[in-house]
Amino acid sequence: MKIRKQTFSLDQYLKLMKAETIRTDQDCQRRSGQWDANMVNELIFTVLTDNYIPPVILGEETANGITRQWIIDGLQRSSSLSLFRYANTRITKNLDEYMVTYQRKISDSNGTPKRDEYGEIIWETVEYDIREKTYEQLPEELQDRFNGYQIEAAIHQDCDTTEISKLVRKYNNHKAMNQAQKAFTYIDVFAKEIREITENRFFLDVYTSSRQTRINGTLERIVGDMVLLCNYPDKYKKDTKVGFKWLNENASLHDFESLDNLLTRLTAAVEKTTEIREIFNRKNTYIFVAAFKAFTELGREDRDFGKFLKWFINDGSKMEIDGKKWDMLEISRSTKDSGVVHGKLDHLVALMKQYFTEIQKAA
Questions:
Q1: Position with higher pLDDT, 183 vs 309
Q2: Given strand 66-73, what is the order of strands in its sheet?
Q3: What is the CA angle 30-36-40, rounded to 5?
Q4: Average pLDDT, the chain
Q5: What is the pLDDT of residue 168?
Q6: What average pLDDT does this structure show over 334-353?
Q7: Which among 13, 16, 149, 349 is least buried, having the fewest CB atoms inside 10 angstroms?
Q8: How many CB atoms lie within 10 A of CB 147?
Q9: Gap between the Cα atoms of 346 and 151, Å rounded
Q10: How far apart, in whole angstroms, are the C-alpha atoms of residue 223 and residue 247?
Q11: Angle CA 40–44–45, to nearest 5
Q12: Which of the four pLDDT bands, split at 50, 70 and 90, describes residue 27?
């Protein structure tokens, strides 16, 4: 099967779609409209800033002398751009980057371009907020940029219906980023440090892990939550993306280095029993690490925290603090909600202080 490459202007490509020369309704293809508003926003911003979009994949079929092209991969991109161009789709407010820079001619009150002493047109650089704008509301310069955007296509030639269906299955056999993986892209400044921390022995010897958590972004999310809860507890948010963006702009290298050291100390301080590993699970690990951070400020030896955890497992979890036991805090379904997380951390810290000031002395 021969493949040829072709580049269209976006205006030309969308017109071919509108004329049904490029077809969007291949029988086995997913329906358009799979993307949410935020994904559409980012796509339009990419076009208006002339950044890269991967090529679309087309299958070309000739029957009875008539040639048609079917979208095999890239339907969501294509349909989203078409709706923006022709169906008055509006960019929403939920956009990370929304200022687009372009150049325009400076005109006088009559709309005539101004010229300098050499007769050259005078230009100015303008920043434009694209939020809540439709295509028709864009300045003419940005409409031209949108229409002139170069979209690449790889075209499988001489296909029949069966071959096109096979290609649809082949090119769509992939899994999109989950929320944790997507959020991780917002902390590029410290991504290397986070990945290095996930290799700490803590995640082998103490944390209850699986192969899946090592590839689905869970460990990176947990490390980010640890840094927030240990160093900037008031900035902890349920939304991982929000937390990562804040760290990217405000954290320091020391925050990550100190966490790596903290995890090494914690790993050495606790026994690696089944019971200990069970409490360092996906839901509570960063809370117990933050509790250990609070413990280190008490001036006690690290091994005493291991003793506290053994007591917590056997007796402490049954004790009440402000009328609540640990089990009562565990039943909340919103495990990452800020109020739940801070409630658990405050509960552990209160238990810890009670253990070292009263219970351990009595024993």
A1: 309
A2: 3-9, 150-159, 56-63, 66-73, 22-23
A3: 95
A4: 90
A5: 82
A6: 91
A7: 16
A8: 16
A9: 54
A10: 12
A11: 115
A12: low
Nearest to 293 by CA among 236, 354, 230: 230
Rounded to an integer, the average pLDDT of 35-62 is: 93
Answer yes or no: are the C-beta atoms of 128 and 99 closer than 8 Å: yes
Cβ-contact 290, 230 below 8 angstroms: yes
pLDDT 10s digits, 240-281 = 999 999 999 999 999 999 999 999 999 999 999 999 999 999
pLDDT-derived band of residue 185, with 50, 70 and 90 as boundaries?
A: confident
Backbone angles phi, psi at 68, to 5 degrees: -130, 150
CA 3 to chain CA centroid, Å, is 34
Residues 234 and 113: their CA atoms lie apart, in Å, by 53
Kindly give the interhelix angle for 140-148 and 37-48, rounded to the nearest 10 degrees. Answer: 90
Q: Which residue would you say has higher pLDDT here, 175 or 294?
A: 294
